[in-house]
């Protein structure tokens, strides 16, 4: 097959593509549909949490105690995110200190260079 035998794909594609039906997305401004989506998400979350509590493997007392412990751990800062935050703060403080030391060292070297050139 030669180049002359192959059809021009751009022309062929343009002729076979259908025009989309309906309105473009950016022109649809129905606040009611957006608010219904939000309400549906909230209702779904509440129903899902209720079903999860009903189908929990432990008794009601055990489940409540477990939830209290987890919430207490989060509030007390014992969770994984709290530990990560503390670790990141420590790392940032160490880096800041090393940069300050390096800046002081550079100032001293610059001062010595100026005094030496004078």
What would the keywords be for this entry?
118 residues, flat, mainly alpha
State the gist of this model.
This protein is mainly α and 118 residues long.
Q: Could you say which overall geometry the principal axes of the C-alpha atoms support?
A: flat
Q: Biggest sheet: strands, sense, closure?
A: none
Low-confidence stretches: none
Structural class: mainly alpha
Q: Tell me, rounded to a whole number, the average pLDDT.
A: 80
Number of helices: 4
Distance N to C terminus: 80 Å
Q: Percent range for helical residues?
A: over 70%
Number of extended strands: 0
Listing every helix as H and every strand as E from the N terminus to the C terminus, the arrangement reads HHHH
Backbone CA Rg: 33 Å
Strand content bin: under 5%
3D architecture notes:
The protein is mostly helical. Helix content is 74%, strand content 0%. The protein is built from four helices and no strands. The longest helix is centred in the C-terminal third of the chain and has 38 residues. The chain is flat and about 80 Å long.
């Amino acid at each position: 097959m030669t180049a002359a035998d192959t059809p021009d794909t751009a022309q062929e594609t343009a002729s076979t593509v259908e025009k989309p039906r309906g309105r473009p997305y950016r022109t649809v401004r129905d606040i009611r549909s957006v608010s219904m989506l939000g309400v549906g998400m909230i209702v779904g979350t509440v129903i899902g949490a209720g079903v999860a509590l009903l189908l929990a493997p432990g008794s009601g007392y055990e489940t409540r105690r477990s939830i209290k412990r987890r919430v207490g751990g989060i509030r007390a800062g014992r969770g994984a995110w709290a530990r990560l935050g503390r670790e990141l703060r420590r790392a940032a403080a160490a880096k800041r200190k090393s940069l300050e030391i390096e800046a002081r060292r550079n100032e001293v070297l610059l001062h010595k260079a100026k005094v030496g050139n004078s």
